[in-house]
Amino acid sequence: MKPKIIAISGLAGDGKDSVCKILKNYFTKHSTYKFKRIALADQLKVECYEACMDLFRIDPINCSREDKEKIRDFLVFYGKIMRSKSKGTHWTSEALKRIEKFNSGNDIFCIPDIRYAFHPADECQWIKNNGGIHIHVQKFTVDTNFDLGKGVSVSTNFSTPINKEESKNNPPVIAFADYIIEWYDCSPELPENNRECIDAVNEIAKRILISYTENQSLVTSQGKEKVKGTRKKKSSKKR
Protein backbone atom coordinates (compact mmCIF):
# COMPACT_ATOMS: atom_id res chain seq x y z
CA MET A 1 0.00 0.00 0.00
CA LYS A 2 1.30 3.44 -0.94
CA PRO A 3 2.40 5.32 2.20
CA LYS A 4 0.74 8.52 3.35
CA ILE A 5 3.42 11.19 3.56
CA ILE A 6 3.26 14.78 4.80
CA ALA A 7 6.39 16.83 4.13
CA ILE A 8 7.31 20.11 5.79
CA SER A 9 9.78 22.70 4.52
CA GLY A 10 10.89 26.11 5.76
CA LEU A 11 13.92 28.09 6.80
CA ALA A 12 15.89 27.07 9.89
CA GLY A 13 14.04 28.20 13.01
CA ASP A 14 10.73 28.92 11.27
CA GLY A 15 8.94 26.06 13.04
CA LYS A 16 9.03 22.90 10.92
CA ASP A 17 9.14 20.66 14.00
CA SER A 18 6.35 22.69 15.60
CA VAL A 19 4.14 22.08 12.56
CA CYS A 20 4.94 18.38 12.87
CA LYS A 21 3.96 18.33 16.55
CA ILE A 22 0.67 20.13 15.92
CA LEU A 23 -0.15 17.75 13.06
CA LYS A 24 0.57 14.79 15.31
CA ASN A 25 -1.74 16.12 18.01
CA TYR A 26 -4.53 16.67 15.48
CA PHE A 27 -4.34 13.25 13.82
CA THR A 28 -3.99 11.49 17.17
CA LYS A 29 -7.13 13.22 18.43
CA HIS A 30 -9.29 13.14 15.29
CA SER A 31 -8.29 9.92 13.52
CA THR A 32 -7.12 6.35 14.03
CA TYR A 33 -3.94 6.90 12.00
CA LYS A 34 -0.59 6.33 13.66
CA PHE A 35 1.51 9.45 13.15
CA LYS A 36 5.24 8.81 12.72
CA ARG A 37 8.04 11.34 12.31
CA ILE A 38 10.84 10.33 9.93
CA ALA A 39 13.36 13.07 9.18
CA LEU A 40 15.82 12.95 6.29
CA ALA A 41 18.45 14.25 8.70
CA ASP A 42 18.10 11.21 10.96
CA GLN A 43 20.33 9.11 8.73
CA LEU A 44 22.64 12.08 8.09
CA LYS A 45 23.30 12.36 11.82
CA VAL A 46 23.94 8.62 12.06
CA GLU A 47 26.47 8.72 9.23
CA CYS A 48 28.18 11.81 10.69
CA TYR A 49 28.18 10.65 14.31
CA GLU A 50 31.80 9.47 14.57
CA ALA A 51 33.20 12.45 12.65
CA CYS A 52 31.28 14.97 14.77
CA MET A 53 32.39 13.31 17.99
CA ASP A 54 36.04 13.22 16.85
CA LEU A 55 36.15 16.73 15.41
CA PHE A 56 33.76 18.69 17.63
CA ARG A 57 32.98 16.46 20.65
CA ILE A 58 29.31 16.96 19.78
CA ASP A 59 26.75 14.19 19.42
CA PRO A 60 24.72 15.17 16.33
CA ILE A 61 21.91 12.79 17.27
CA ASN A 62 21.33 14.33 20.70
CA CYS A 63 22.57 17.90 21.04
CA SER A 64 21.27 21.37 21.88
CA ARG A 65 20.32 23.95 19.25
CA GLU A 66 23.48 25.88 20.16
CA ASP A 67 25.69 22.84 19.55
CA LYS A 68 23.81 22.05 16.35
CA GLU A 69 24.79 25.47 15.01
CA LYS A 70 28.44 24.60 15.63
CA ILE A 71 28.26 21.50 13.43
CA ARG A 72 25.65 22.72 10.93
CA ASP A 73 28.20 23.63 8.23
CA PHE A 74 29.81 20.19 8.52
CA LEU A 75 26.46 18.40 8.28
CA VAL A 76 25.48 20.53 5.29
CA PHE A 77 28.84 19.77 3.64
CA TYR A 78 28.51 16.00 4.09
CA GLY A 79 24.87 16.03 3.10
CA LYS A 80 25.71 17.96 -0.05
CA ILE A 81 28.39 15.42 -1.04
CA MET A 82 25.97 12.52 -0.71
CA ARG A 83 23.26 14.44 -2.55
CA SER A 84 25.65 15.22 -5.39
CA LYS A 85 26.79 11.60 -5.72
CA SER A 86 23.19 10.36 -5.86
CA LYS A 87 21.67 13.32 -7.74
CA GLY A 88 19.53 14.16 -4.73
CA THR A 89 18.20 10.68 -3.98
CA HIS A 90 20.45 9.38 -1.16
CA TRP A 91 18.55 10.73 1.85
CA THR A 92 15.08 10.15 0.41
CA SER A 93 16.04 6.56 -0.43
CA GLU A 94 17.14 6.01 3.16
CA ALA A 95 13.89 7.53 4.43
CA LEU A 96 11.83 5.37 2.09
CA LYS A 97 13.50 2.24 3.47
CA ARG A 98 12.29 3.15 6.96
CA ILE A 99 8.83 4.10 5.69
CA GLU A 100 8.40 0.80 3.87
CA LYS A 101 9.63 -1.07 6.92
CA PHE A 102 7.08 0.48 9.27
CA ASN A 103 4.15 1.11 6.92
CA SER A 104 1.15 -0.86 8.14
CA GLY A 105 -1.32 0.90 5.88
CA ASN A 106 -2.70 2.91 8.79
CA ASP A 107 0.28 5.24 9.22
CA ILE A 108 1.04 8.85 8.38
CA PHE A 109 4.72 9.59 7.93
CA CYS A 110 5.79 13.19 8.53
CA ILE A 111 9.09 14.37 7.05
CA PRO A 112 9.83 17.76 8.67
CA ASP A 113 13.03 18.70 6.85
CA ILE A 114 12.47 19.04 3.11
CA ARG A 115 15.03 21.48 1.68
CA TYR A 116 15.82 20.77 -1.97
CA ALA A 117 14.23 20.81 -5.42
CA PHE A 118 17.40 21.07 -7.54
CA HIS A 119 17.75 17.66 -9.20
CA PRO A 120 14.96 16.09 -11.31
CA ALA A 121 14.37 13.44 -8.62
CA ASP A 122 15.13 15.64 -5.61
CA GLU A 123 13.32 15.84 -2.27
CA CYS A 124 10.31 17.92 -3.40
CA GLN A 125 9.86 15.86 -6.55
CA TRP A 126 10.16 12.66 -4.51
CA ILE A 127 7.34 13.82 -2.25
CA LYS A 128 5.10 14.49 -5.26
CA ASN A 129 6.00 11.22 -6.96
CA ASN A 130 4.97 9.35 -3.81
CA GLY A 131 1.65 11.16 -3.53
CA GLY A 132 2.73 13.20 -0.51
CA ILE A 133 1.44 16.54 0.76
CA HIS A 134 3.96 19.39 1.03
CA ILE A 135 3.53 22.16 3.64
CA HIS A 136 5.87 25.16 3.74
CA VAL A 137 6.10 27.33 6.87
CA GLN A 138 7.28 30.95 7.03
CA LYS A 139 7.75 32.96 10.22
CA PHE A 140 7.36 36.73 10.33
CA THR A 141 7.47 39.68 12.70
CA VAL A 142 5.48 42.90 12.52
CA ASP A 143 7.20 46.21 13.25
CA THR A 144 5.29 49.40 13.97
CA ASN A 145 7.23 52.59 13.29
CA PHE A 146 6.31 56.20 14.02
CA ASP A 147 7.85 58.90 11.88
CA LEU A 148 7.12 62.50 12.84
CA GLY A 149 5.28 64.06 9.94
CA LYS A 150 4.57 60.75 8.21
CA GLY A 151 2.56 58.98 10.86
CA VAL A 152 2.56 55.30 11.75
CA SER A 153 3.75 52.62 9.36
CA VAL A 154 3.57 48.86 9.79
CA SER A 155 5.98 46.46 8.13
CA THR A 156 5.90 42.66 7.93
CA ASN A 157 9.33 41.06 8.00
CA PHE A 158 9.81 37.40 7.14
CA SER A 159 12.80 35.50 8.49
CA THR A 160 15.88 35.32 6.29
CA PRO A 161 18.06 32.35 5.24
CA ILE A 162 20.90 31.51 7.62
CA ASN A 163 23.34 30.58 4.85
CA LYS A 164 23.86 30.55 1.08
CA GLU A 165 22.44 27.05 0.77
CA GLU A 166 19.10 28.13 2.21
CA SER A 167 19.06 31.32 0.18
CA LYS A 168 19.56 29.41 -3.07
CA ASN A 169 17.29 26.45 -2.41
CA ASN A 170 14.34 27.95 -0.55
CA PRO A 171 12.56 29.64 -3.52
CA PRO A 172 12.23 26.49 -5.71
CA VAL A 173 11.13 24.50 -2.64
CA ILE A 174 8.32 26.99 -1.96
CA ALA A 175 7.14 26.57 -5.56
CA PHE A 176 6.41 22.90 -4.86
CA ALA A 177 4.37 23.52 -1.70
CA ASP A 178 0.68 22.57 -1.60
CA TYR A 179 0.13 24.68 1.51
CA ILE A 180 1.98 27.71 2.85
CA ILE A 181 1.69 28.66 6.51
CA GLU A 182 2.64 32.21 7.43
CA TRP A 183 2.72 32.61 11.17
CA TYR A 184 3.75 35.30 13.59
CA ASP A 185 6.91 34.85 15.65
CA CYS A 186 5.27 34.16 19.00
CA SER A 187 8.55 33.54 20.89
CA PRO A 188 9.33 32.90 23.67
CA GLU A 189 6.07 30.95 23.41
CA LEU A 190 6.37 27.89 21.16
CA PRO A 191 4.03 27.69 18.14
CA GLU A 192 2.65 24.35 19.37
CA ASN A 193 1.44 26.21 22.47
CA ASN A 194 0.02 29.20 20.60
CA ARG A 195 -3.68 29.07 19.77
CA GLU A 196 -3.47 30.93 16.47
CA CYS A 197 -0.57 28.79 15.23
CA ILE A 198 -2.40 25.62 16.26
CA ASP A 199 -5.55 26.73 14.43
CA ALA A 200 -3.57 27.46 11.25
CA VAL A 201 -2.04 23.98 11.15
CA ASN A 202 -5.28 22.29 12.20
CA GLU A 203 -7.07 23.87 9.24
CA ILE A 204 -4.63 22.14 6.91
CA ALA A 205 -4.72 18.88 8.88
CA LYS A 206 -8.51 18.81 8.59
CA ARG A 207 -8.31 19.10 4.81
CA ILE A 208 -5.67 16.39 4.61
CA LEU A 209 -7.76 14.04 6.75
CA ILE A 210 -10.79 14.60 4.52
CA SER A 211 -8.68 13.78 1.46
CA TYR A 212 -7.49 10.56 3.10
CA THR A 213 -11.02 9.61 4.16
CA GLU A 214 -12.48 10.25 0.71
CA ASN A 215 -9.38 8.89 -1.04
CA GLN A 216 -9.08 12.06 -3.09
CA SER A 217 -6.20 14.20 -4.23
CA LEU A 218 -5.76 17.17 -1.89
CA VAL A 219 -4.51 19.65 -4.51
CA THR A 220 -7.00 20.71 -7.16
CA SER A 221 -6.74 22.83 -10.27
CA GLN A 222 -7.68 25.82 -8.15
CA GLY A 223 -4.12 26.07 -6.89
CA LYS A 224 -2.33 25.93 -3.58
CA GLU A 225 -3.61 27.31 -0.29
CA LYS A 226 -2.00 29.94 1.87
CA VAL A 227 -2.81 29.97 5.59
CA LYS A 228 -2.06 32.94 7.80
CA GLY A 229 -3.12 32.73 11.40
CA THR A 230 -6.79 31.75 11.47
CA ARG A 231 -7.46 33.34 8.08
CA LYS A 232 -7.16 31.36 4.86
CA LYS A 233 -7.00 32.69 1.32
CA LYS A 234 -6.17 31.46 -2.13
CA SER A 235 -2.67 32.06 -3.36
CA SER A 236 -2.41 33.92 -6.65
CA LYS A 237 0.25 31.44 -7.73
CA LYS A 238 -1.15 28.63 -9.84
CA ARG A 239 0.23 25.15 -10.04
Which H/E pattern describes the elements?
EHEHHHEHEEHEHEE
Structural class: alpha/beta
User: Main β-sheet, in a few words?
Assistant: 8 strands, mixed
Distance between termini?
27 Å
Oligomer: single chain
Helical percent range?
A: 40-55%
The number of helical runs is: 7
Q: Mean pLDDT across all residues, rounded? A: 88
Assign an overall shape: globular
Low-confidence stretches: 218-223, 230-239
Strand content: 15-25%
Radius of gyration: 19 Å
Q: What is the count of β-strands? A: 8
Care to describe what's here?
- The chain is of the alpha/beta class.
- The protein contains seven helices and eight strands.
- The chain has helices at residues 16-30, 40-56, 65-86, 90-102, 123-129, 164-175, 195-213; strands at residues 4-10, 34-37, 107-114, 133-147, 151-158, 179-184, 225-228, 231-234.
- Strands 1, 2, 3, 4, 5, 6, 7 and 8 form an eight-stranded mixed beta sheet that branches.
- Helix 7 links the parallel strand 6 and strand 7.
- Helix 1 crosses helix 7 (195-213), helix 2 (40-56) crosses helix 3 (65-86) and helix 2 crosses helix 4 (90-102).
- The model is unreliable at 218-223 and 230-239 (pLDDT under 50).
Which keywords apply here?
alpha/beta, eight-stranded mixed β-sheet, disordered C terminus
Please summarize what this structure is.
With 239 residues, the protein is of the alpha/beta class. The chain is built from seven helices and eight strands. Helix 1 crosses helix 7 and helix 2 packs across helix 4.
